[in-house]
Amino acid sequence: TALTALFLFDTHLSGTIPDSLGRLTALTYLYLYETTLSGTIPPSLGRLTALTNVDLHGISQLSGTIPGSLCAATLDLHGCALNGTGAGNLTVCSKLSVLDLSNNSLTGLPIELPPRLTHLYLGSNPLQTTAAELSAVTSRLPRLAALDIAFLALKVDLPATRVTPPTGCRLGPDPPPCFFELQLYDCAFICTEVNYAIGCSKI
To answer: How far apart are CA 69 and CA 27, in angstroms?
Structure first.
């Protein structure tokens, strides 16, 4: 089919996401957010190789994880019920630059992410991780410019060497030199003027 955009957001659409959506191979925009859909994300969506934007946020009964085959420049699934690490192996999704998994039920960090990722939102999740694991993830993302892990809600073992912004922060007893500057953005990706350093030291 030649359909390139599917906008069914903010409706009373219910049931599960149909496998048949995988036949819409020309689709570039898939917006199903703020609906009453449930279940999991069908792997058939991985056949939609033309996707640029997938917005499924606010589907409170959408559980499981993002299939590793699902690929788009922006994947927005905040406010769902994803669990575990929230995503399969996304390293092969070379066009993925923005991944929003905030406000889900994630207990672990997504670790298989593409190196061109620039925005990663994991805030408001019951994450149970360590500073070393967090640093390992960010070290594999050289283009990362925005990261939200909601420190105040994070069950992470942050050592006493961490200091508060705007001075910066340090993770681990002997952090490496700074390798990127972290900026927190709002939902419209507008800079909040608060700069952090993460996984590194910054004076």
So the answer is: 15
Please name the residues in contact with 155: beta carbons below 8 A apart, sequence gap of 6 or more: 126, 127, 128, 129
Burial 145-165, CB ≥16 within 10 A → b, else e? bbbbbeeeebebeeeeebeee
**8 Å CB contact between 76 and 98:** yes
Helices (H), 96-193: 131-139
> Which segments within the chain are labelled E, that is strand?
5-7, 14-16, 29-31, 36-39, 53-55, 61-66, 74-76, 81-87, 98-100, 105-106, 119-121, 128-130, 146-148, 155-157, 182-185, 191-196
Per run of 10 residues, the mean pLDDT along the chain (length 203 residues) is 91 94 96 96 96 96 96 96 95 95 92 92 82 80 78 43 35 40 36 34 29
Q: Which parts of the chain fold into alpha helices (H)?
A: 131-139
